[in-house]
């Protein structure tokens, strides 16, 4: 017969849940940690309240300049100049056209995500940019032409970034593949291009596009300044994409190339079906990083006389009726840039999760 | 007559990596339906030999004829040969971004231009054969090593190959999974497909092989039917090799 011994009762488990326990574990686990926690709290205490006061509580949200009595941010400046920040010098009566393009873009993205039919998707991919250009530039179907010097503000920033990102992506992939090619001429050209572009600041390329390039053409042949900037930015970005994609390609095990080859797939089939889907998936974080930095770099177009959102803020600040509103303007621009960049990085995370077949 | 029946013929094949002479005058003729096992110490050139057969490795001298087509450096010829030769790798090399089913459907639809529906039917038939049809919708990394290797074998079978090459198919597997893969291979062998298999599974060689080949330092040292090969090895080197791998 088994003999059971009576065990001594154990002490009740110490509280390991709740706010106090969490604070003790995470904020005050050691002396050093406690000091850092207190320093951070002090920092937040001294920075946050005045900031919130300035941004929100003491801010002026409506009325005219004469009505300003409070000390905080005078957002009436942003409200007054909002249209210029967003559309630049685009004629006010035609603002519906860029707005319509935003709606078309949303529909296009929704369609790309939901349609399964590949030829239809390809058709949309060709149609979408054409329709967008028609609406923004005009010139056909009785739409009034709005020349590129009138484009500006956030609209210009987004156009430059979107064209740069979309156009550079395929070029970058081709350059990356070219760099790995066994054909010496292709390889040399690709390496030469990538290394040259990466060795030069974007600002130089923009200068070259706007000042040097016209020297090669006869007088009278005038190529649109924005178009030149777009070509410059696209080529610049393509070199960076190429390096990011190369990293992805190098991470694919040799066995994948061999398996694809051994099945009789052609070079392009094995790249498009096997290697690139995997390489691009690995590269998503770096690709998005490079897109985000391009988005911020678009502001350099101001040095060749294009007015992106930052340039519009600077410009509206020289309006004699609205002097001294720089801080509000720049805070607003900061916020806009942050919203765009943060959205891109969040989107990249969701894309990464969607494509993750390793652990699903 | 006999040369017409040859599915694979290698004549005086030589290969160098830089100064290193990997394959030295390799001569090998394999008839249709023959099962050949190649063994030998590591670095003996056995994997290189079978990788030459589907041009994953180039060779500098000699010639190779696969099912009547001479292997030359021409994209079309190489693709034509590869479309008749299936290869199973040590590390499976399944495509991790595609489901098991899509792994199998890929080559038939893109290389052999079959309609997708037909390719899926074939794929399911072979998945059934390797006893893994219920995993068709999963991704390769959700399967065990043995399962992955069986998928890899099914993937090769989907292109209806004349020849199957196996490059140490069980070396990367956990011991308990070796037999499930070998069982599939034995079944396959009984159906009359031409098989060339680099392996150290001597039990498999005894059971299945029509001929066993021993390679060392880039040369074929000895070839014989399995019984003679294992019971009365002619060369000292083979005797030594067999002692080493069978002793434990």
TrEMBL record, chain A:
<dbReference type="GO" id="GO:0022857">
    <property type="term" value="F:transmembrane transporter activity"/>
</dbReference>
<dbReference type="InterPro" id="IPR010065">
    <property type="entry name" value="AA_ABC_transptr_permease_3TM"/>
</dbReference>
<feature type="transmembrane region" description="Helical">
    <location>
        <begin position="96"/>
        <end position="115"/>
    </location>
</feature>
<keyword id="KW-0472">Membrane</keyword>
<feature type="transmembrane region" description="Helical">
    <location>
        <begin position="329"/>
        <end position="347"/>
    </location>
</feature>
<feature type="transmembrane region" description="Helical">
    <location>
        <begin position="27"/>
        <end position="45"/>
    </location>
</feature>
<feature type="transmembrane region" description="Helical">
    <location>
        <begin position="122"/>
        <end position="142"/>
    </location>
</feature>
<dbReference type="GO" id="GO:0006865">
    <property type="term" value="P:amino acid transport"/>
</dbReference>
<dbReference type="InterPro" id="IPR000515">
    <property type="entry name" value="MetI-like"/>
</dbReference>
<dbReference type="InterPro" id="IPR035906">
    <property type="entry name" value="MetI-like_sf"/>
</dbReference>
<keyword id="KW-0029">Amino-acid transport</keyword>
<keyword id="KW-1003">Cell membrane</keyword>
<keyword id="KW-0812">Transmembrane</keyword>
<dbReference type="GO" id="GO:0043190">
    <property type="term" value="C:ATP-binding cassette (ABC) transporter complex"/>
</dbReference>
<feature type="transmembrane region" description="Helical">
    <location>
        <begin position="189"/>
        <end position="217"/>
    </location>
</feature>
<keyword id="KW-1133">Transmembrane helix</keyword>
<feature type="transmembrane region" description="Helical">
    <location>
        <begin position="267"/>
        <end position="288"/>
    </location>
</feature>
<dbReference type="InterPro" id="IPR043429">
    <property type="entry name" value="ArtM/GltK/GlnP/TcyL/YhdX-like"/>
</dbReference>
<feature type="transmembrane region" description="Helical">
    <location>
        <begin position="300"/>
        <end position="317"/>
    </location>
</feature>
<protein>
    <submittedName>
        <fullName>Amino acid ABC transporter permease</fullName>
    </submittedName>
</protein>
<keyword id="KW-0813">Transport</keyword>
<feature type="domain" description="ABC transmembrane type-1">
    <location>
        <begin position="154"/>
        <end position="348"/>
    </location>
</feature>
TrEMBL record, chain B:
<protein>
    <submittedName>
        <fullName>Amino acid ABC transporter ATP-binding protein</fullName>
    </submittedName>
</protein>
<dbReference type="GO" id="GO:0005886">
    <property type="term" value="C:plasma membrane"/>
</dbReference>
<dbReference type="InterPro" id="IPR003593">
    <property type="entry name" value="AAA+_ATPase"/>
</dbReference>
<dbReference type="GO" id="GO:0016887">
    <property type="term" value="F:ATP hydrolysis activity"/>
</dbReference>
<dbReference type="Pfam" id="PF00005">
    <property type="entry name" value="ABC_tran"/>
</dbReference>
<keyword id="KW-0813">Transport</keyword>
<dbReference type="GO" id="GO:0015424">
    <property type="term" value="F:ABC-type amino acid transporter activity"/>
</dbReference>
<dbReference type="InterPro" id="IPR017871">
    <property type="entry name" value="ABC_transporter-like_CS"/>
</dbReference>
<dbReference type="InterPro" id="IPR003439">
    <property type="entry name" value="ABC_transporter-like_ATP-bd"/>
</dbReference>
<dbReference type="InterPro" id="IPR050086">
    <property type="entry name" value="MetN_ABC_transporter-like"/>
</dbReference>
<dbReference type="InterPro" id="IPR027417">
    <property type="entry name" value="P-loop_NTPase"/>
</dbReference>
<comment type="similarity">
    <text>Belongs to the ABC transporter superfamily.</text>
</comment>
<feature type="domain" description="ABC transporter">
    <location>
        <begin position="8"/>
        <end position="242"/>
    </location>
</feature>
<dbReference type="InterPro" id="IPR030679">
    <property type="entry name" value="ABC_ATPase_HisP-typ"/>
</dbReference>
<dbReference type="GO" id="GO:0005524">
    <property type="term" value="F:ATP binding"/>
</dbReference>
<keyword id="KW-0067">ATP-binding</keyword>
<keyword id="KW-0029">Amino-acid transport</keyword>
<keyword id="KW-0547">Nucleotide-binding</keyword>
